[in-house]
């Protein structure tokens, strides 16, 4: 593991300077993720558009984004991948892998899509 | 891409066909509505995530084409509305005459402003539409091989607005753009940002068939056409109204303006094209007119040394193909014309002075030569300055100027003699009033004229003659200057020529040593000392230009003959086998004359001395006739006349002639002028000599030159044939010309004659079988 990806995963998990709150999932299977818009924008064209000045929604200085059609487990994997470039699918249930495949296609995360397809 | 579809069998959309259609319709209605809201600038009520997911689902469920076509329809509808509600109402009042109704093109400017807004709105909306249709772009557009949605938007804008089939938007746009540019050309202030916005818009749109920009297909040609027409008219107007410098300034300004215009709001690709048009219409088409403008064209600029204007013309005209050629030939013609004028003043002067020279106006001849060279040098200076200050030292111009100088310098058949006389003049009085550096620089310049001379051998002959006189008469001011000049000539003519000149210097030096020895010899000798001081210069006949093989006729006084004999014994005693001939025509003598008022020392030529000594035996008032003097002295007639002129008709009248007059004629009587007075004790009697050769002398020189050329030609032929052994006639002629042309231009007839002479003398033979081929006979 490179120092860079380790440090970035720390930023994802522990930092308090996040500026994005993402509501993921629906109903009882929902979770709130905190993230940094700079990183999301830099790593994904989807988020680059989503957070562009035309589309962005800001409440109390926080960017609010809803993603109801992805499960929190899958989104967590996506977020980790976005931050660190790493993904560990060992011992993950097939359901999650399938969810990851569909979600990475929607979000146009090509590398991730190809990777999860080959699992 | 099939791999992108759902993994086989693992996941399937819920199989509810009817609900799938309903889902599609629902999705599409929301998207279409959203796009309309975007067009209304109401995007803040929309959710990116939802719209994106809608489009994603439509593509995922293989409704990409329906989505794509639907989007096309919504955008087209919107643009049609924009055309009707915004663009068409902004049309300027009346197209063509709008410049009259709106002198400032305000209607047009407003139209552009509206278009700018419409365009900006469109691009902003398309960026947002692109955002929510990103999945369609990535997954559908690529496989279906259709333009990405943003590009689709550009195409729709092009076809619905810019090239609308329903409204004459295109006409108005092009007209307004051209009108704005025209206004700006006429010094109106226009709002460039509006123009630039429209131009940028046209640059972003692509023509479907040519794949070029709409700017290039729709606008550029029209722009260039109108510009051509505009500058065609302006060119005609300007040449009629302005003089050449003003005209060029205007053209400069126009070129600059067009360049700025392109930089500010047109495409860089247009720059060379519009530049060509301005150059063609304002420069190429009026080249000759501007060059030939009376009182202000190229020649007046040269005449008045308007270096700035000339420089501007050089730069400006250099932009077009023929520009510099036209300038060059005009300047060359001018140089030739000026040169012709210089030549004419000289010929008119020499013919007018032909009579004067004989009548004793001794300086005029040389003055004419000096003035001619000085004028040519001044002309050269002038054009060197033009070259330097206005023409960036352009080599092509230099070559053409040189040809012009060469042309008129060689038109004056006396130029070799004149140039030599000019050098002679400078080396004789050189240091008077001039520093050594100044003299040197004058001589340097003279060498540049020398280079223009075609007949260098003729110059060499004159130079040798003039140098001989300078040396023998002790007229050279500076030995360094003389040697400097020889150094310069060595560079130009080669050592062959200068070794002879150096030989002349050597003779002078040795003679001075010889005279020292001669004096010692006399001191030690028991012989009777000569009653006069004899100074002898021994010349090696091959170095000197005069014919030294025989002594000219002249009866020297006995004392002198005796002194000469003593010297001859002394000299031949040291150098046996040499032959001395006495050149009494070149000597000088110092004699003392007793006049009523006082005694004067007279420095005279040997001939004059012989003449004057005759009067020693005569009583006061007793005269001698021309025939008596001629008979007694035996001096050749031409020399005798010239010397009598110096004594009787020039500044110092030692003799009095009857009848009076400037010419010496048979029957004239001469008396010793006892009443002669002069302020100086020592008097130098100049021999009247027309410094520029008389026709007779010229013919003689010419003959000598021709003779020398025969030898040189033969030598060249032999040199070449010795090397090649066998050669065809024309090749041989060409080679001979090549070898000799640095000295003179031999004519083929001369060469042919020499070849024949060499065949006769069995140096060459004609080849058996081919009479056009020569063999060398060793």
TrEMBL record, chain B:
GO annotations of cellular component type: cullin-RING ubiquitin ligase complex; cytoplasm; nucleus
Keywords from the UniProt entry: Isopeptide bond, Nucleus, Ubl conjugation
Main localization, broad class: nucleus
Domain Cullin family profile: 414-648
GO molecular function: ubiquitin protein ligase binding
Region (Disordered), start-end ranges: 1-25
SUPFAM superfamilies cross-referenced by the UniProt entry: Cullin homology domain, Cullin repeat-like, Winged helix' DNA-binding domain
Cell location: Nucleus
Superkingdom of origin: Eukaryota
One biological process term in Gene Ontology: mitotic cell cycle
This protein's name: Cullin CUL3
